[in-house]
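User: I'm curious what two different proteins look like when written out as structure tokens. Can you demonstrate?

Assistant: Sure. I'll show them one after the other, since each token string lines up with its own sequence. Here's the first protein:
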Amino acid sequence: MSIAFVPSSPGLPHLLELVEQAVHIKTGGRIRGLSVRVNDGRLIVSGKTSSYYNKQLVTCAVQRAVEDMSVTNDVEVC
């Protein structure tokens, strides 16, 4: 499922929740401290994980969940 995002949309909290759920499902919950937020029209996902593969899964999950929106994957591999 893809969601078109409108910056002034009242559905923003719902969008953030859907993205968080998509990331959780795609990564099997392997992102610690997962945070999804919007800043200046950009969706930012952050947290910590143990592998670059998990970080890549985050990008895949977010791209499937939203369209027409810039995304920053700030997940830290540590």
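Here's a second, unrelated protein for contrast:
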Amino acid sequence: MKTLTVGIGCRLHSSAEEIETAVRATLGSHPFDEISTIASVDVKAQEAGLLEFCARHALPLKLFSREQIAAISVDDPSAAAREHLGIDGVCEPCALLAAAAESGAASVPGAAHASVGSITPVASSAADTPNARLLVRKTVHAGVTVAIASTTARPAREHTNTDAQEQDLP
């Protein structure tokens, strides 16, 4: 059963290979085939590397607005995300929002869930994520940040920075 949602933040023009390397490194003991959804900020809707990664693995990409993301508390705020997007982070809040959406908890009455290809903008709010939990906190790898969430009750692993620069950029 696919139970993992993966939130991704990345530098502009990150390649599909860089994203895949970061996701696989972050998964640790979690199997890749448990991933149900990739999630990011809506400004990444045309990010070629992210789209290629999702297409390569037939994974849907759920996108969240900066307003939706800002409503989710972030324990380790990103200065880069704050500077470029005006929010405290991308990967952790997006992973949580997507996990809640997967469980049906993010359904907002009357909200449109438009779908463009495999990209789905999702309507949700902070109050809609009570069952979602981070399994793996923000991990940074070569300019790509990744976090993993689920509605299962496994505890989050602490994040690890595998390179010196924290990046969570548009």
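A detail about the second structure: The first strand starts at residue 4 and ends at 10.
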